[in-house]
Amino acid sequence: MNKILTGSIAGAAGIVLLLGGAGTFALWNDTVAIAGATITAGTLTVEAEEGTWADQDDDAITSIDEYLIVPGDILTYESVLNVDAQGDNILAQIVIDHGSIISDDVEANLALEELLTKATTVEVVEGGGVGASVGVGRTGFDLTAGEHELLVTVTIAFPEDAAVDDDAKTGAVYLSGLAVILSQTL
Question: Domain of life, per the record (predicted)?
């Protein structure tokens, strides 16, 4: 009798283990809808108007391709960005796309690219009005829903402390693809 009782207990324990591994027993349940709405995603689009180049003396540069930059020069590029921000609670930031400052694989070109990439910044002012600054560099800013005109100034500085025998002499970089990135932040 002990063998039968021991076998029954062992069998019952095995069934319990098997059932436990297969999941839980479901009791009565039901589902009810708790919301009846549609969520629509917003958007953030940007287009740039034609811009202008100037040097540190605010003299216009008519052809950036022909400008020979030297240590101490500070070049600026100004353009208006037309932004369409559709959404609630949009915070944004604007940064330079450093990958858009490029050069050929030549030592002097790569040296100049490195110098200028490190010294390139962007500033944005909403509507271009005085005191209307909404962000500088990597600083985020509130971008309320709607259309905005952002005056963007990209500053490219050739460090004045660049050595006389600097590797960047006669180097060339391509700015034809110069870009900024406007992105939503959390």
Answer: Bacteria
